[in-house]
Amino acid sequence: MHPIHKLLRSYSQGCLSYTTMARHSLAGEGGLLQHTFSISEQLQPLLRDAYRRWRFEDFAFPFSLAMRGFDGRETFPDYPHREDGLLVWSLTLTLTLTLTLTLTLALTLTPTHTSLPLTHSTEHAG
């Protein structure tokens, strides 16, 4: 199992299942949107099409800035959200890569068997 998978397993399992349930209860057949809006029959195909085109990578902060046209310093030279967000993005990326490398090395270098006892013995040789 990949180290990142191990790190994010508990978070992603809950998060993704809640997101899926919410999507079905809101936008699914017989969901809240269908009962609330009179245009629900026209809205359903649009939502399905948008969901098919949805990619997780689209939510990467640098990509999001570029898609909205806020990535260029010449257009918006003083944009604190971009500067702070890119700093946080960079730190998160560095942390993730460091943890991945560290865990991968630890798992790779850990022997599958050892000659050392696995439990602490209270007896003294003597």
Q: Please report the number of helical segments.
A: 5
Query: Alpha-carbon distance between the termini?
Result: 44 Å
Largest sheet: none
Number of domains: 2
User: In angstroms, what is the radius of gyration?
Assistant: 24 Å
Q: Tell me the fraction of residues in β-strands, as a range.
A: under 5%
Query: How many beta-strand elements?
Result: 0
Q: List the helices and strands in order.
A: HHHHH
- From the helix content, strand content and strand pairing, which structural class follows? mainly alpha
Overall average pLDDT: 78
Q: What topology emerges from the helices and strands here?
A:
Layout lengths: L2 H25 L4 H5 L3 H14 L7 H8 L11 H30 L17
Describe this structure in words.
The chain has five helices and no strands. With 126 residues, it is an all-alpha fold. The protein folds into two domains: 10-54, no CATH class; 55-104, no CATH class. The longest helix has 30 residues, at 80-109. The mean pLDDT is 78.
Identify the notable features of this structure and list them briefly:
126 residues, mainly alpha, 2 domains, 5 helices, 65% helix
Q: Can you give me a brief rundown of this structure?
A:
This protein is mainly α and 126 residues long.
